[in-house]
Amino acid sequence: MGANTPSTTAGLLICEHCDTVYRRRPLSRGEVACCERCHNILERHARLGPDQLLALTFTAMVVFVQANIWPIVTLELNGRPSSATLWGTIVTMWQQHAEVVAVLAALTLFFFPMAKMLLFGWVFWFARRGERGPGFRSAMIVLHYLGPWTMSEVFVLGAMVAIVKARVYFHVVPDPGIFAYGALMLLITVFGTVDLRQLWDVTRERSR
């Protein structure tokens, strides 16, 4: 099944990995449907509806803005403090001729997460009314491919390791930005458990 093709039809559930077809039944809370042939997960019980997911998306957007505005860490040496934000660090890497690392950091920590949250907000805004917004199919394709490229959790873990190691040479003070990124990491983890394919079943084409 392609990323732009729903893996569910009326009353049927199709495994994306081996194309085995199953008759679908509603899942109870906590239940997970697995393929008997290849043992991959077919579907999870949807604990969060479009309204709750839209609220989480708005929360993630607010946290995302805070994480990019607030300093991440303050280093102090000989009484001279120096604070760093994400974009300040990216610009410094670019100026130090680490262009590839700077571009990757900007894409995976800013542009990809921002695009993902905007698309989430778009599809959930219409899904709460049971409709598919304009460009719904394209948005679902982009969300499918953006999934592995939002690396806030990698950044948070790397920053924590760097803070611990930097304490040997500097007085290090974690700033609100790193905590905002930690909260964003948790929200992205929640979104990672959501099966977006179910939006095909709970929405319909908009009436013109």
From TrEMBL:
Pfam families reported in the protein's UniProt record: PqiA
Signal peptide (residue range): none
Keywords: Membrane, Transmembrane, Transmembrane helix
Membrane-spanning segments: 53-73, 100-127, 139-166, 178-200
The keyword Transmembrane is assigned to this record: yes
Keyword Translocase: no
Organism domain of life: Bacteria
InterPro entries: PqiA-like (IPR007498)
Protein name: Paraquat-inducible protein A
